[in-house]
Write a structure and sequence with these properties.
The protein is mainly alpha-helical and 335 residues long. It contains 11 helices and 3 strands; from the N terminus they run βββααααααααααα.
């Protein structure tokens, strides 16, 4: 059984600095922990997951703010979306069972421990980890079209979600203004009108009308559009996180292609030097420089190929499908 709950948030002091501390209750693999973490601890956790799980969907967290961090609304906002972040990680088993989560929960200084872990993990370690967890075969083929089509879908969906979120926010603003005017009408103008008419006729004194007034006031105070804004905001961030995960493969491919083009140009340059006559006195010096450059390029090329293995494997589709499938079930985040 795994669970996550922020019990409360409080402002702490360290000399001249103030910061927010979140008291958290976590159940991880049957063990229960009560820990205190700062917002920066969540930030470094996400950075570690992105670095150590390239190509995998990592849920979003609230953006960092340079000012206003102690505002009660900001604290509540972060508390809500940090809970969504962690609860989504629980649903992605290979992330929830990761070393990064273990350090976040158990380390006395998670920020420092996660930073050190980022520096210590090499690309070869990531490839070996992916082999063990996802069980892929480097010699298997891969359907690039399926991934590319999904990436096109994400790229086209992201701006649509962004516009939808803006529209929902505008509706909320308009609704708030409408609510203010309607409540003002119900609580101020109508009673004044009623009072003015009492000498003539009681227009609003019956119980049925009073009950209707109460119902209207209740509807005015409901936050249905606020829920819509929250939903679209979360949807937008989850889609953009999917987009970031898919961009890993594209970036590796682009960098590998550029490196191979440089390597081919260098080989051509070496061939040209070999074809020149021995009358050039600096021929050997030129060859030495170019061979050193070639060695550097080949080493860089091999490192890039190792990185690109992550995006080349057939199981990468499985990783994306698992992650995106959980991402698209956004409604689970509000349970």
């Amino acid at each position: 059984m795994n669970s996550f709950k922020i019990q409360d948030a409080s402002i702490a002091e360290d000399g001249l600095l103030n910061f927010v501390v979140y008291k958290i209750q976590i159940q991880h693999n049957g063990d229960q922990y009560v820990i205190k973490r700062r917002f920066n601890d969540f930030v470094i956790l996400k950075e570690a997951l992105i670095h150590n799980w390239p190509g995998c969907f990592i849920p979003p967290i609230p953006q960092k703010k340079s000012i206003g961090n102690m505002d009660i609304n900001v604290i509540k906002y972060r508390q809500k979306y940090l809970s969504i972040f962690m609860k989504k990680l629980i649903t992605i088993d290979y992330l929830w069972q990761s070393k990064e989560i273990e350090l976040f929960i158990k380390s006395e200084n998670p920020h420092q421990s996660l930073q050190e872990h980022i520096k210590s993990l090499q690309i070869e370690d990531i490839i070996e980890k992916y082999k063990q967890i996802f069980g892929f075969d480097e010699n298997q083929g891969i359907n690039y079209i399926e991934i590319d089509n999904f990436q096109l879908y994400i790229n086209s969906t992201a701006p649509m979600i962004e516009n939808f979120q803006k529209m929902a926010k505008n509706i909320l603003i308009a609704k708030d203004q409408y609510n203010y005017e309607q409540i003002l009408f119900i609580e101020s103008f109508l009673p004044q009108f009623e009072s003015a008419q009492l000498t003539q006729e009681i227009l609003f004194a019956d119980e049925e009308t009073k009950q209707q007034f109460q119902e209207v006031k209740k509807l005015c105070q409901q936050n249905e559009f606020l829920k819509l804004v929250d939903y679209t905001k979360t949807a937008e961030r989850f889609i953009l996180s999917c987009k970031d995960a898919l961009m890993v493969r594209s970036n590796y491919a682009k960098e590998l292609q550029e490196c191979e083009e440089k390597l081919n140009k260098n080989k051509i340059s070496l061939q040209e030097i070999h074809t020149k006559t021995f009358f050039f006195s600096n021929k050997e010096e030129q060859q030495t420089k170019l061979k050193n450059l070639q060695t550097q390029l080949e080493q860089r090329q091999q490192a890039l190929r190792n990185q690109y293995l992550i995006g080349r494997q057939k199981s990468f589709i499985k990783i994306i499908k698992i992650s995106i499938g959980q991402c698209l079930s956004i409604q689970q985040s509000f349970n």
